[in-house]
From TrEMBL:
<dbReference type="InterPro" id="IPR052736">
    <property type="entry name" value="Stf3_sulfotransferase"/>
</dbReference>
<dbReference type="InterPro" id="IPR027417">
    <property type="entry name" value="P-loop_NTPase"/>
</dbReference>
<protein>
    <submittedName>
        <fullName>Sulfotransferase family protein</fullName>
    </submittedName>
</protein>
<dbReference type="Pfam" id="PF13469">
    <property type="entry name" value="Sulfotransfer_3"/>
</dbReference>
<keyword id="KW-0614">Plasmid</keyword>
């Protein structure tokens, strides 16, 4: 295992699935010999806990269905390693926002009734920092949602972590929605709405805020659920994004996969998915209602967190900036000691990005920089 890999237990996040969902997810997928023990452990946990998941569903169904969103949600969009995590963590310091926690990201089916039973155990087992980039982790911290979607239904792009050889298939189905059936799409929308409602019931607040990189290609689909949703799109130097994404994916996937994937295949997948995600976002962003979208660069946010954040609030018509300002300042102050991984671009990176992502270099105005921090 890479020194930058997560050190996780034998089970995977799929253990948080109801067994019927897990069965649908893995049916027809190749599980290679070295990873069969991991799959058996994952299935066992899912099977043993599914009755409690059923209890949670019955006990909380009416409350979840009855929940109404007070305000239009905010979606933070951007490719992996573009600054979405930092922006999400920062905005979640504003108490008006409700969000998916790390705990809900893994155990969405144990959120409202059995959190007391599982959260402390998860807290003891999970690492305190992401090994790939030193970002702090905790069970109640804000988190992206795609693992939770995959534990509530089979319809998640993050199934690629388990079955990386099927990445392009998952991209076509759950990022582009080209190959998804009508019935599956209806289920996907219902699942996501339920996930967001449960997040609000769990964390409180009056406005849901989401950070989920796969959503970057889902503007059209999200607007079908939340027609007046607000969006923040953050982009970053594509050279940095490529090397950082490769480093993050190759460091994370060893603890999650049920089949092998080479670094070369991972590179090809990253190059392909980026083009599809950014291309679909650019094609669909005109669907967003006037005044409900702001675009910014990671470099702009990094240079002046507070000024950029204030611009986001003003552009999207969000209230309570001054009220939340002390919380923002406290968080920013705490991050001053955070050290990013330092890299120098490889010649291969320069060549691959220019060849495959040249459109993004032109679109966002980036040029070659010999040094980078990821």
């Amino acid at each position: 295992m890479s020194k930058n890999s997560f050190d996780l237990p034998a089970i995977t996040p799929l253990s948080g699935s109801r067994y019927n969902t897990l069965r649908k997810t893995v049916t027809g997928r190749k599980i290679e010999g070295p990873f069969r023990k991991r799959m058996r452990a994952t299935k066992l946990v899912s099977m043993l806990t599914s009755p409690m998941m059923a209890i949670e569903e019955v006990k909380n169904r009416n409350k979840v269905e009855a929940y109404n969103f007070e305000e239009a949600p905010v979606f933070i969009l951007g490719h992996w390693r573009s600054g979405t995590t930092h922006l999400h963590n920062l905005m979640c310091r504003d108490k008006q926002f409700g969000y998916v926690t790390t705990y809900q990201g893994v155990f969405p089916n144990f959120l409202l009734s059995f959190q007391w039973l599982f959260k402390s155990t998860m807290g003891m087992m999970m690492p305190k920092k992401r090994a790939t980039d030193n970002v702090e982790l905790a069970v109640d911290f804000p988190q992206e949602e795609e693992f939770a979607i995959g534990n509530m239904s089979p319809h998640s792009f993050y199934n690629f972590w388990s079955f990386p050889q099927n990445t392009i298939e998952y991209c076509d189905k759950y990022l582009k929605f080209d190959t998804i059936s009508d019935a599956e799409f209806v289920e996907w929308k219902k699942t996501y709405l339920k996930l967001a409602k449960k997040a609000m019931l769990n964390t409180g607040g009056k406005r849901f805020i989401s950070k989920n990189p796969p959503h970057t290609s889902r503007v059209k689909e999200l607007l079908q659920i939340f027609p007046n949703a607000k969006f923040v799109y953050i982009y970053r130097n594509p050279f940095t994004v490529f090397e950082s994404t490769l480093n993050f994916f190759m460091g994370t996937i060893p603890s999650l996969k049920f089949q092998k994937i080479s670094e070369d295949e991972m590179k090809r997948n990253i190059l392909h998915v980026y083009k599809e995600v950014i291309g679909k976002y650019e094609a669909e962003k005109s669907m967003i209602p006037e005044g409900n979208l702001i675009e910014l660069s990671f470099e702009e946010l990094e240079a002046d967190n507070m000024a950029t954040l204030e611009k986001v609030y003003k552009r999207l018509g969000l209230s309570d900036f001054e009220k939340a300002k002390p919380e923002f300042e406290a968080y920013i102050g705490k991050q001053k000691n955070y050290k990013k991984n330092a890299y120098q671009y490889k010649q291969e990176t320069l060549d691959l990005v220019k060849e495959h992502w040249g459109f993004a270099l032109d679109l966002y105005g980036y040029t070659t920089d010999s040094n980078a921090q990821l």
